[in-house]
């Protein structure tokens, strides 16, 4: 069994929690973090660190706690993220600091904190990107840009720190979590927006956190040993369709 630790940022709910649970089910030693106190539902084997990934000292502390408790870190999953629904014209300095601070700098902070030991002992980093980092979701300017940063950083780490470190990104589509529900709630008619989005999924359903967790665990495993520097879209086929509407034909 692999005894190295797995760090999952933003492990309290949604996709992060599903990732934590999947690694725990595999018998892995997991360190999870979030800004709040330890969630009551968290498996007792999980080391919980109350930390804010946007702060570089907190990122260092998360890695130190993982090393103190489990010896070394074999896998880092940068999942913590937030979104703010605004255009460039609507966005404030505070919006930039918050979204870029967590999604972009937070991912960078954790990578920088874990890489010195990973380049010695080997490991795998998986970053949560988004389909929004490849095509622009309307009124999500800073969020879209923060996820494009994550995709670029993923490739840089793979290139700069291979072969000891593999680094990949998973780019979810619509995954039913608090974040997705909040986004639908912003629509003029949330029910219609949901029905319209669902109709665009060749897979016939929205994604579930478990769909992303399965991909993350696979990328961390030895089965993915020749895969690095890639961004994997997991969206039920949403972005495979031509943007042209059938009425044009
Ligand atoms: P949720 O809002 O459900 O969960 C986000 C998690 O991140 C929570 O555990 C939250 O805990 C934590 N978090 C937020 N800010 C920080 C911070 N500064 N430091 C530490 N932890 C933090 O989001 P999802 O599960 O939906 O999304 C997870 C990831 O997947 C994100 O990166 C998101 O951008 C990405 N994604 C999600 C999609 C979706 O449809 N759901 C689509 C595409 C990408 P707390 O607030 O307590 O700190």
Task: Give an overview of the whole structure.
The protein is of the alpha/beta class and 249 residues long. It has 2 domains: 5-172 and 208-234, NAD(P)-binding Rossmann-like Domain (Rossmann fold, 3-Layer(aba) Sandwich), CATH 3.40.50.720; 180-206, no CATH class. Helices cover 43% and strands 16% of the residues. The protein has 7 helices and 7 strands; from the N terminus they run E-H-E-E-H-E-H-E-H-E-H-H-H-E. The protein has helices at residues 14-25, 56-70, 93-121, 141-161, 178-185, 190-199, 209-220; strands at 5-9, 29-34, 47-50, 73-78, 123-128, 165-172, 231-234. Strands 3-2-1-4-5-6-7 form a 7-stranded parallel sheet, with helices on both faces. It starts with a strand and ends in a 15-residue tail after the last strand. The model has no long low-confidence stretch (mean pLDDT 96). The chain binds NADPH dihydro-nicotinamide-adenine-dinucleotide phosphate. NADPH dihydro-nicotinamide-adenine-dinucleotide phosphate binds at residues 9-10, 12-16, 33-36, 52-54, 79-82, 102, 106, 128, 130, 172, 174-175, 177-180.
Sheet having the most strands: 7 strands, parallel
Spatial strand order of the main sheet: 3-2-1-4-5-6-7
Q: Overall mean pLDDT score? A: 96
CATH arch. level architecture of the largest domain: 3-Layer(aba) Sandwich
Taken together, the total number of domains comes to 2
CATH topology of the largest domain: Rossmann fold
Q: Please state the oligomeric state of the protein chains shown.
A: single chain
What's the total number of strands?
A: 7
Low-confidence stretches: none
Radius of gyration: 18 Å
Order of helices and strands: EHEEHEHEHEHHHE
Tell me the structural class: alpha/beta
Beta strand %: 15-25%
Number of helices: 7
**CATH class value of the largest domain:** Alpha Beta
Shape: globular
CATH superfamily annotation of the largest domain: NAD(P)-binding Rossmann-like Domain
- Proportion of residues in helical segments: 40-55%
What small molecules are bound in this structure? NADPH dihydro-nicotinamide-adenine-dinucleotide phosphate
Q: What distance lies between the first and last C-alpha atoms, to the nearest angstrom?
A: 56 Å
